[in-house]
Amino acid sequence: MKLSVLMLAALVASGSALAQGRPDLVEQSLRGGRAQFVPGELLVQFKPGTSPEAQSAAFAFVRGERKQTILSANRRSDGRGDLHLLTLPPGLEVADAFRAMTQLADVDFVEPNWMYQHQAVSNDPYVTNGSLWGMTGSFGSGASSVWGNRTTDCGNVWVGVIDEGIMRTHPDLSANMGKNPGETGLDAQGRNKETNGVDDDENGYIDDVNGWDFAGGDKEPFDGAGDDHGTHVAGTIGAVGGNSSGVAGVCWNVKMISAKFLGSRGGTTANAVLAVDYITDLKTKHRLNFVATNNSWGGGGPSASLQQAIERANSANILFIAAAGNSTLNCEAADCFPAEYANANVISVASITNTGGISSFSNYGVSTVDVGAPGSGIWSTVPRSSKGSVIPGYVSMSGTSMATPHVTGAAALYLAMNPTATAAQVKSAILGGAAPTASLNGKTVTGGRLNVSNFNFGP
C-alpha cells in the first residue's frame, strides 16, 4: 500500500512517528528490494523519560550495541526522547531486528538507516553564449528577467546546501560562501576560533567555521574533485554574476554553507538528520537568515527521524526544497523520499527540458511533486582534477538535482525582496507563481514550472 500524502499529513499532525504509527509501511520498503539501507544498523528513538537502564535493556533485546547518539533528549527542541544509531550482531537481519524492536513499550519508533544518493545523471560567457538556458531560456526559471529590472542581490539571506561538499575557493563561489559566526573571531584567550580546537558555539562540532562533514566526521566539508555534485548545486543557487567569468546563479550575492552528508557511497538517514538539524541550529542560535536547505538527493523508505528533523526546520521557518528523483516514477504509487513528505515546509521539484517537456528521467506526482524547474543540460561550477591538483571548472549535468537549486535560489531571491516573509509565504509565492506548462499538467501539484518573473517583489 502506498504511503499517501494525506496519511503522512495525519501522522505529522497527530505527532505520531511514521514507524511507530505504521511499521508495516517501513517493513514494506525494507523488504521491497528497491530501497537501500546500511546493513547491520537501526535507528531507535525512545519515548521521553526512558531511563538509560531501560534503553540498554532494549538494545540487549536484539543483542545490539549503541554506535552513536544522534540526538539526546536534553538537546532537542521538540520534546521527544533520545535517538540512537544501533549496530546489530552478525547474522541478525535488519528486518527481523526491526520487527522485534517495534514491540518494545519504551521504543517510540525504530527504522533502518536508509541510504540516499544524489539525483544527478551527469559578462559571464555561459550566460552570453546561451548555455545557461535555465536562467535565460523560454522555459527557464525567469531569473534573467529579474536580473535586468529588479535585483540580483539576495542580501543577507542564507542557504544550507545539504549534499556533497562545496569547493569554497571556486572563483564563482568564494564570495558567496558563509561562515559560522560562532566559530569566527578570537576566543577569551586571544586564539583564533577557526582553529583553536574548541567547540566555541557549543553545537557539538569543533571549529566548524565552514560547515561540517557528517559523512567523514570532520570540520572540512570539501574533500576534492569528488565533491562535484555539491559544488554544481551551489553554483546554480549562488554563483557570482556579472564578473565576466563562468556562470551566474539565481542569486548573484547570497550566503551558502555546506552540511556535507553525501560521500562516495551516498549518505545515511543518521547523517541526514544531523545535517538538517545543523542548519536549524545555526538559524536558531545565531539568528542567521536561512530561508531554505537544498536537498538534491533521495532514496530509502519512510523515515520518522528524518521527517521529524524536517519538522524542526519547519518550526524554525526554514524550507526543505527537495529533488523529486530520477527514476521516472509516479510518486502517487511509489516511494519518493524525502521529496514526498507532507511537512508544510517541503517543496518537491521535478525536472524539465529547455523545450518545456518533463525530463525523461524525472519523477512526478499530481499531489506529491510541487513544481517543475530546469534540470536537463544545466551548466554550473565544479572542481576538476588536473595533474594532481584540484582546479575550478564548469560542466553540464542533468537531474532533478539540477532543477532543485533553481527553486532554492528563487526562494532566497524572494525573501531578499520581501524580508518579513515567512517560509509559508515564500513557498506560496513559488507555487502560486508557477507558469502553466503542458508537460506538467496532471503531473505536479501546480501543473507548472518555476517562473521568478511572476513573483510579487513588493514595493
Please specify the SSE layout and strand pairing.
Layout: H1 5-14, H2 18-21, H3 23-32, E1 37-46, H4 52-61, E2 65-71, E3 83-87, H5 94-101, E4 107-118, H6 125-128, H7 133-136, H8 143-149, E5 153-163, E6 211-213, H9 228-238, E7 253-260, E8 267-268, H10 269-286, E9 290-295, E10 297-298, H11 304-315, E11 319-323, E12 346-352, E13 371-374, E14 378-386, E15 389-397, H12 400-417, H13 423-432, E16 435-436, E17 448-449
Parallel strand pairs: 5-7, 5-9, 6-7, 9-11, 11-12, 12-13
Antiparallel strand pairs: 1-3, 1-4, 2-3, 4-8, 4-10, 14-15, 16-17
Helix pairs in contact: 9-12, 10-11, 12-13
**Would you identify the CATH H-level superfamily of the largest domain?**
Peptidase S8/S53 domain
At CATH's second level, what is the architecture of the largest domain? Answer: 3-Layer(aba) Sandwich
Given the helix and strand composition, which structural class is it?
Answer: alpha/beta
- Overall number of domains: 2
Helices, by number, come to 13
